[in-house]
Write a structure and sequence with these properties.
homotetramer; alpha/beta; Rossmann fold; Dihydrodipicolinate Reductase, domain 2; 2 domains; seven-stranded parallel sheet
């Protein structure tokens, strides 16, 4: 299967290039960058010297459809929605890594402050979380690749939601992300000297991943009631990695062991989810540069509240790795193909 | 007033030395280190060359009482409780920066897994949070200097607790700390390569600051009911700084503005607490190397929950700076004396 | 003495504000920023809340001369030279922290690729390295504050140059700097994710501090011959600090001890230069947020070459601290006034 | 070919495990750790969960010879030499990643301050730098895998030495390394808070890699004269990566272009050496987690001196990757097998 990466010089695009360049069954056939078209990508990123020979191209749907079967759009939110319809029309299957096709139009307009895509396109988009929706993904023309925080949060909470073991009204998610999650665009807040030796919250009460998480949790909830949660995101002075700490009141008498057994069973066929034993908790470096999501949890007998911790690499399982996993599913090959590299622990 | 620092070569001790060396009215007269006695402290820490001429001494209560009026004990929990009684007996006033005198004996035994100090000593110890207890501190023989997380958390929540504006049963505190909070003792988890580019939770459900926070919140609660909360601590790859994110359900209809007005009023005479306006949130570098505690908050109209963020420097307002503030109170001088340095933002 | 800081929102300007806000004898009376005029500086940098009440102003020489005696220009190279003449004309004494007045016009044009200031102005500027030129500084109208690398390199090498103990033709300086040395201007190379976990050289063979160092070394050389050296600069993933490693062949039979004795004598009246004993070498954190320059050296008996290591804080002794030291000299007060704070080791 | 990793829980051992676990033609059959024997390695390092099922064993030569063809010893210097003879005697081929078999016995004793291995063993050891000695490596029983600094330095300088284009008497190498180069052993100097936001030199004039570099340079020198150089090593606050900056006086009139052409030719068959064009210089992140060595250089017309910059990942090309490259050569397979992963740029 032949793959084009649109927006290849951003951080997510670059990670797609890294994964596809070493993928044994997918072939990278085009990389685009409107701002640096006609330049060899290895001249922009010398680490790709001798590895990726491609020249960056302008985005043009017809041309891409000639050389590729699937287009991966790693473009900023708002830009993605402008190009996706023409890609689909040209016959490409599309995996959109931007946030443009993950929400109904009203929520998109409210949280992204942008004009939403057409409703029928949104209705056709499959939410690309393979641990939940692999069957739908396999047949999709348009996959909305999940956001980084939603991936970690949903994998943390869906087993409990589906079983009704937590009270959705008590849900609080405290997320922490490395800096690549903010992308490559320059603004003063990502100057090295501003981020380094600093820790802060950002987009308090306003993060656009909030409705994405709520929507899927509502869909997966036993009760069907709308889930509304408190979600706070923080910036960690490191490049890669997300850790989410999720809190909810239990509705049942279950123990830490009971919950871990539930998770182990829920993810028994999910090759990238690793559930830790009692007393062991995930850390971001355990999944660095890999597609794993590590989960650990603790039931506090004092408060009858559960704390669920999940770690992913925001650029891999939170973006590019998940997209490749989705391409594997589209291609009908083992979903771990090209994604089995060992985490770069150090 | 003459001051002795016990345990001067640990990170908290070193910060006490830094603050006292530039204090205009307190005189540093003795520094101790059992493991490096008889060595000049500037030979252990060359940054003190030409600034601090003192030679490290073994801890000996009688000798310290000869040269100092107040002893600051920056010793590991468990060691502090062994030496404090003899310091008091020798006529010294003591500010204990360890956790040994902050809890009733049963809670100390349960959370610290150590033999507690004598009950009458614990009963006599004043909890050294000057924003709440300055009057008691002024007359204390033994001040239990608060822990770093409790300082940030209590300053975040006491205005709401005293006014009964939040439901204590819904309280969740998600704390994040730089590495110096773990002290200087060597163990693999604080190797540079383990901490750098990593983010993780630690002591999940078991942090010894939990009962310290709960105890003071219970004391300050309007209802008098026991406060039990969920508290999770995380390690940030940076040296200094704590950010706490505290969550609670509101019991009132108040807005973000209302809460900020409450805080501004509550802290109007507290020179080290800075309450941010709507939409601005604290970050650790804004208080770095200073004694400030910056607070910001947000009421989410969707969930009727408040998120309170507070930032301190764990070594200053979270330890050594607060101790110097307490000494100033003991000495009857302005509590900001020697603590007015500008945060080292970069 | 009243002081104005021009370019107060850059990193060097901000450090000037920090030092002046806590200076006991100098008064900060104006802060300028053309891009953020009429805004309170504490609204741009909330860490200054309750500390610095000033509102940012546009640069206007007459207005500044009304409120200040000395103007400190922390502007980009090229901008500084445009405003300095009018400041002088308005009767202000000026300390220029940019590189505009440190070189003869031909070298300035060659290395800075900008139009140089007028020759008579350049001729009148005093090079503001107080350890060498305190007497001239005291009477100067215009002080050219040294660059960060030149400060560390010159303090490392002048004792040997003055005594003719090294062969200037063999001089190699390998410099390493934290990121604040590059200033606050945004370009992709200072994105957190580009700098973090990376080490690289920059401006190889082309750093504009090269002729500044060579010029002063030539002036201080016993032989009077032009000094030409190899100078390479590297970017360290940290905020503050410069370490220079300087290499030269010895022309004499002297040992490490002999050289250290020479340095100790040379700097006996220099309060900010600390010479380490044999076998101890400087590190950047030993001088962090302070005005010290720490020096250590080693004579290798195998090669008869000396390696001199020097550490400074690039924002303090390498920029703002040195400027304040120069203002102290202008003001006729002890040059350490307001600069005695203890290094922030952690 | 079956491979055993001795000392699998150190940082180099762990990197060997990472590379071998994803190697398509080598099989990892045993991992040892005397201190943690009988524990599953994934319980010590949870990032290996579901990937490496091996249980750690005590080192026992006979047992290892039963399950493996080649032993990779990633043990501390001094320990390696104790076990290597028994491994060879048991019929294993050995690649020693420690420094024990790289020097003649007198130099080993002088620089390592340890008892050297037997002279005949040292004489039989092949220096495992494949770019120079692939033919000898192919037939070796014992390969001395080069040190991290020597790898970068030798690849930087051998083309010039072989051609006599530089004066060996003027050679100065200024090296900078991430912290994993120091290994996993605990001592205060690698505490996160000591390394972070700090830059320093270490082992000034005394680094044990000095004679290793000099010995190979002497062997490769056109003149045959003993090379003696000045070598200074510095610690960079990052996990991975070495950058070396090497300086030497040219003996010829050649330009930067001429030298780059020489290098391009010299390394035309070396798949892991990438020579940058004029004006582009290596940085450590361009080779991170990969086996590449990137080289750039500049001839300064002012001083007729060349500056050569080289970047490697100290754990890969500087240790484990080079060892795997050597095993590939022993096995008679393409030397890039299992080593073609794309650098993890971010």
């Amino acid at each position: 299967m032949k793959i084009a990466v649109l927006g290849a010089t951003g951080y997510t695009g670059l990670e797609l290039v890294r994964l596809l360049a070493q993928h044994p069954e997918l072939e990278l056939t085009a990389v685009t960058s409107d701002s640096q078209a006609d330049v060899q990508i290895a001249d922009v990123y010398p680490h790709l010297t001798d590895i990726v020979p491609h020249v960056l191209e302008r985005v043009e749907a017809e041309r891409i459809a000639e050389v590729a079967d699937v287009a991966l759009t790693a473009l900023p939110a708002g830009l993605s929605r402008e190009i996706v319809p023409s890609l689909l029309q040209a016959g490409l299957r599309v995996i959109d890594l931007a946030g443009d096709h993950r929400l109904p139009s009203d929520l998109y307009a409210e949280w992204y402050k942008k004009t939403p895509p057409a409703d029928d396109l949104l209705a056709s988009a499959v939410y690309g979380l393979p641990e939940l929706y692999a069957a739908e993904i396999a047949n999709a023309q348009l996959v909305a690749n999940p956001g980084c925080y939603p991936t970690a949060t949903l994998l943390s909470l869906v087993p409990l939601m589906q079983n009704g073991w937590i009270d959705p009204a008590t849900l609080i998610v405290d997320g922490k992300s490395g800096v690549t999650g903010a992308g490559k665009a320059m603004h003063p807040s990502i100057h090295f000297a501003e981020v380094n030796e600093n820790f802060k919250a950002y987009k308090v009460g306003a993060h656009q991943h909030t409705p994405e998480i709520e929507r899927i949790l509502t869909r997966e909830s036993r009760t069907g009631k709308e889930v509304t949660m408190t979600f706070t995101t923080h910036l960690v002075p490191m490049n890669r990695g997300i850790l989410t700490t999720s809190y909810a009141n239990l509705t049942v008498e279950q123990t830490t062991d009971d919950l871990l057994a539930l998770y182990a069973d829920f993810y028994r066929d999910a090759p990238f989810v690793r559930v830790h034993p009692v007393g062991r908790y995930p850390q971001t470096r355990d999944v660095s540069a890999s597609n794993y999501c590590d989960i650990g949890l603790h039931v506090d007998p004092r408060t009858r509240r559960v704390t669920v911790l999940a770690a992913i690499d925001n650029l891999v399982k939170g973006a590019a790795g998940q997209a490749v996993q989705n391409v594997n599913i589209l291609a009908g090959i083992d979903q771990t193909t090209g994604l089995r590299s060992v985490p770069v622990y150090l």
